[in-house]
């Protein structure tokens, strides 16, 4: 659809084809107005550049591009994150692993490692909540790390970033009280990769190009060498992987192996103690 300049903001908003929330977000993005200003300036006619921008934004959304990539932002754990095609869009479900990690970080000196940090969601949320903790975040993607670094700075979070494939760039003796990870866990060829938002997200953030468990296996195997005795490994995984992950954890010798449910009642995070 082509949005005509000169139409009032209120009329444009009423005529947009998306759901009301998305209409409002894109109208704010195209005009630079806040939600309140959309109302207080409702009679103002849309300028030609605003109408052109809005036409483009609506077309992108209609092609299925996630709203977070279109506006370049997503809220996570009450913080504002910059997002782009190099990183997974942080999901509300991932707030669970942040809460579990925060509950398990000792008071006083505390060290957390976020493996596969993407936008920095987990590391930045933890570091923002526990500014006294030493938080390290790693990722194999330099573009993701650049964005994560910007998100840490924008949120005033102190995080050390490492370019690393899983444990490779860590010093042998480096240990943490908690390791948290939301690794790629979708199996190669899974039909979900060709659906919805996932079509636009970085494939290396979604799939391990194998059975879905290979990154989880690597992290579980390497965890004990980088955890304090009794330290927690917490892993986010797919809706149907909890039992398999618990088995991997138990076979690797972790104690107190268990899973936790997300808000939808799905076992979303599993973990155990070294
Ligand atoms: C599912 S995304 C999670 C992003 C972020 N932690 C979150 O929860 O929103 C998985 C992340 O793992 C990273 N990754 C994939 N393979 C990796 C590897 N071999 N070593 C380190 N990170 C890796 C991807 O680049 C991606 O950023």
Q: Roughly how many Å apart are the termini?
A: 57 Å
Radius of gyration: 21 Å
Query: Which structural class should the secondary elements be placed in?
Result: alpha/beta
User: Unreliable runs, pLDDT <50, ≥5 residues?
Assistant: none
- Main β sheet profile: 7 strands, mixed
What form results from the Cα inertia axes?
elongated
Number of helices: 11
Q: What value does the average pLDDT take?
A: 97
Write up this protein.
The protein starts with 8 loop residues before the first helix and ends with a strand. The protein has 11 helices and 9 strands. A 7-stranded mixed sheet has the order 5-4-3-6-7-9-8, sandwiched between helices. A two-stranded antiparallel ribbon has the order 1-2. The longest helix has 15 residues, at 48-62. It has helices at residues 9-15, 20-31, 35-40, 48-62, 67-71, 95-104, 121-129, 142-154, 203-206, 214-222, 242-251, and strands at residues 73-76, 79-82, 111-115, 134-139, 159-163, 176-181, 227-236, 255-261, 267-273. The protein has 274 residues and is of the alpha/beta class. The site of S-adenosylmethionine (SAM) has 22 residues, from helix 7, strand 4 and helix 9.
């Amino acid at each position: 659809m082509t949005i005509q300049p000169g139409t009032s903001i209120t009329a444009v908003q009423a005529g947009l084809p998306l759901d009301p929330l998305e209409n409002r977000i894109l109208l704010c993005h195209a005009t630079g107005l806040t939600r309140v200003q959309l109302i207080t300036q409702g009679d103002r006619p849309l300028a030609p550049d605003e109408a052109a921008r809005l036409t483009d934004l609506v077309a992108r959304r209609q092609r299925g591009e996630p709203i977070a990539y279109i506006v370049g932002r997503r809220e996570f754990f009450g913080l504002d994150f910059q997002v782009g095609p190099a990183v997974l869009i942080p999901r509300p479900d991932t707030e669970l692993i942040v809460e579990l990690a925060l509950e398990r970080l000792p008071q006083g000196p505390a060290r957390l490692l976020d493996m596969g940090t993407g936008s920095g969601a987990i590391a930045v949320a933890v570091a923002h909540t526990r500014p006294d903790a030493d938080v390290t975040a790693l990722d194999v993607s330099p573009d993701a790390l650049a964005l994560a670094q910007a998100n840490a700075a924008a949120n005033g979070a102190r995080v050390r970033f490492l370019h690393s494939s899983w444990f490779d760039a860590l010093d042998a003796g480096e240990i943490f009280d908690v390791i948290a990870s939301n690794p790629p866990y979708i199996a190669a060829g899974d039909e979900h990769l060709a659906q919805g938002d996932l079509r636009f997200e970085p494939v290396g953030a979604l799939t391990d190009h194998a059975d879905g468990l290979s990154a989880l296996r690597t992290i579980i195997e390497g965890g004990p060498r980088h955890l304090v005795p009794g330290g927690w490994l917490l892993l986010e995984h797919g809706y149907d992987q909890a039992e398999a992950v618990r088995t991997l954890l138990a076979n690797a010798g972790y104690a107190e192996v268990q899973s936790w449910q997300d808000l939808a009642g799905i076992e979303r995070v599993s973990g155990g103690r070294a």
